[in-house]
Design a protein that fits this description.
The complex is a heterodimer of chains A (566) and B (198). Chain A has 566 residues and is of the alpha+beta class. Chain A has 18 helices and eleven strands. Chain B is globular. Chain B is 46% helix and 15% strand. Chain B has one domain. Classes of the chains: A alpha+beta (566), B alpha+beta (198). At the A-B interface, α4, α6, α7, α17 and β8 of A face α2, α3, β1, β6 and α5 of B.
Amino acid sequence: MQGDSRWARAFLTAALFFLNFLSRLPVAEAQGNAIDETNAGRELRWVCDPRNWKPVPPAKKAASSSRRCRLARELTAKARDITSEIQNCLSGNFTCGVSQKIAVDQKIRHLMDQYLLSYFLRYKASLSLFEIIDRAQASIQRSSEGDIQAGLGGLKEIIARLDRRLGRIEISARASPNRQALTEIGRIDEQGGLAYHDFLGISFLIDANNDFIEGKSPQDKASYRAALAERQKANNLARSLVGIRARLIALQKRWGIRTFLPLTSQRVDKDSRAIEQDAETVGALRKNHVSHIRIKSIHPNWKGASPGLNGAAALGKLGSAPKPKLIPSMSLPWMTKISASPRVPPSPPRRRLVHMSGPGSYDQFPRYAAFLHWMDHYHFSRIKGHPRADAAFVHRQRSGDCAIVSQQEVLEIMGQLPFRRPWQTENRLIREAQNKGLAIENGNTLPAYAGELLTSRGVLIAKHYYSQETKSSVIDSDLDSVLKRGHLAIVAVDAGVLWNDKKYLNGGHVVLVTGVSVLPLSGKVMGYYINDSGVSPASRGRLVSAAQFREAVNSRVGRNFVEVLP
Amino acid sequence: MRGYSLFLAAILMAGACGKPRAREDLLRDVVAAALVHPPCSQIIPSWSASLPVPTGNRGGKEFSIFFFAVPDREGDHWLGTPSGRAVIELDSSSARSCERGAGSRPSLNLRDRFSPRARSLGVEAMMGKEAELDGVLEKISRLYSDKRPLTSKDEILIKRFGDLFSLLAEPPFWPNYRDLNPGFWRWAVQNGATLPKQ
């Protein structure tokens, strides 16, 4: 406990030092230490007068300098606000909790992103603030992981008990559902919801902080093994949650209460609107899981429970706090998976697949691609997944937001977003990703936060990153095993290789892989079905030969993918 | 019969204990891993990474790269200016440092990305040349770091590097390549590499 307090004090002191440094920046310039900024080969020199925040003449680029001076003024004001917050925290005999620390961290990072990204990065090495923040968050992460594991253990016990009870009860077709069993199901759902939200927080923290796990420097090889192991742990937690959710759905089906559940896309829309609004008002860019797991406003039954980082405490409270209704209204994202009929395109029901094979196409080996189609057509090969149904969900992306469009496809396939006006939905998702700090301009997604739009809507994912030591054959076999299980995968590829066009070589691109074509006896993968939003017209269920696709995956910009858990 | 088995066992042992062959695609995998791990994964989106340039540090295992945007939508014909850079190391999956500039503006034409000689190559051939360049670069980087007198074989290697680099590097970005480590380019030209005029 003492150790935590020492960390927190060090964190706040460093934050003060850092903000002090920030507020001095423009003053230093005014004293004549002009800052050179290399901007696409051009050098801009700018100097601000701290009395009126105007550029000191003669400024070479007047417009640019005045804009920067205005930014410097805003920055100084905000830095002062945060400084006073931290000082209040320190003067109150150190009563700042985890949430306050994270809020301060969010604000600092927001400042960093908004104003001085290049300066912060330049001075990052000399400042230990970031390291301290990240270590503090890593310690939070470790404690919440224990919470979630305890929660999952409790859930498994409850499910086993309910299973045993159900085994003893003879269920007739007309029998009304047992009240006690329904209460149990409600408890499982609520605790599952808490575990799910805890998982979201942990997963996000792992992605944001895995270079500082256990205080190791990012250059340390072992720390990366630890980081990968952490990611693997999060993937396993996601799989456990998916298993529990599936079991719960089965129990509900057995009791015949599935039809009563108000699980519609409208509810999901409402949730996501609340999340979006929250992100905008708080101004949280990264690590805003604390804001978006505040579910009090979303669900009335959750009053009193405070899920999130204190998952175990919340689980403890649940025994006495809200009693579930007879028919629990489960509208949390973690349960929205059970949509009416996933994988069935609502409108139009079927579209002709555009295979794009043959000479002059995107295939490196057009004849071989044609052969693969022939194999599929005459059922010499087996298709894993549902590429024909899923093909209807792709549309051509508007800008460089391929990762966002791929996630949109998954959400539409899963029934989490309505399949109407895809470009409008795309714009909304881009805005949401930018507000949350998951993407930059044009919707270009940052690799650390791939798949976050899915998890915020109840779709659980497993992220697969690889170190430089991993051989490409291992990555191929991992991807194949995911796809052979019928899961969807959002895969990073080299656009130039995938489109067989050298102009786009080494260009980072993301596609949704909807299925694989395998040989029936050996199980060898012959080709991959992809939904590619980057080509015109958007390729619906294009069958790419295994060699070409693997080459695109094992490129400078590939070697990672997100598995969508069912 | 026993002697024959011993002979076979000896061959197998020799095969198993031999020095593992260096992977030619290691440099490519290092760049890929650095992009999906912090700090790069938190600030650099799915932009294209340049060819690595040796820094001469850490026994020739350290390289610098820069990032620029390539359209991920077919039919777009712009090319982004370099807007981020990173230092990567062969022994680590992460970048030692990573920074992003003001944003990759689409100011260049994608058709001018490669030299006329490279435009005549197919994708497969380009990939092959790139893999070869990665292999040569690792060796060159060690030579540059060691600062020892070069043999005639080394000079052939440097010349080969110059040819491959001139073929594969994007002409609009040659000044950016030079800025990554001007000392390395001086050393390469002094030792026989024919590099494009910058």
